[in-house]
Sequence to fold (195 residues):
Amino acid sequence: PVYMGVSDSPILSNASRSTYSLQTLKIHREAAESLGGEKYLKTLTERIIQAATSDEERVRRILTFVQRTIFRDPLAQPLQEDGSLPDPLTILLCARGRCGHTTTLLLELFRLSGFEARILQLPRHVAAEVRIGNRWVIADADVFKNGVVPVNREGLLLSIKDLGDDPYQVDRFQPTGWFMRPGSCFTRSVQGHPV
Fold:
């Protein structure tokens, strides 16, 4: 189990370099090094997917693991002094972050499990895409949490092509990683009624 203490003086800005304690980040970076870095992640990945019987199930297991391990913190996200993201194991040990953090961790776990994966850049959001057979499917552990894994009408993981053909396929799944303030414009219909 990873214990994560309260962040020192979080600042309400995702663009700030001081949204997460650099001392805490340093502790987690040192812990990642002492655990063995990539070797630790390789062993962890093998344990995550060991009981899976198909590539689709392996991807789902990795995706739901990252959903459960990274808390989407809208206030404090671990960034290095230069504003860049830490390495994947440090991100895992910090146990909080946003879309870039979950995508970085996903890409590494997919790579270590033998999958081809890449960044999926969306407007103001980033996710991962992973190749299963001849399909590139979406892997997003930031917007979707708590075991919510969007699938197409055939029950397979969604692809960008699936969404282009029928955008409703993603709208029927709850984005559980985001929070909204009660009464915000996102919680009201176009007539202003709460929804």
About this structure: Residues 10-14 have pLDDT under 50 and may be disordered. The radius of gyration is 18 Å. The longest helix spans residues 55-69. DSSP finds seven helices and five strands in the chain.
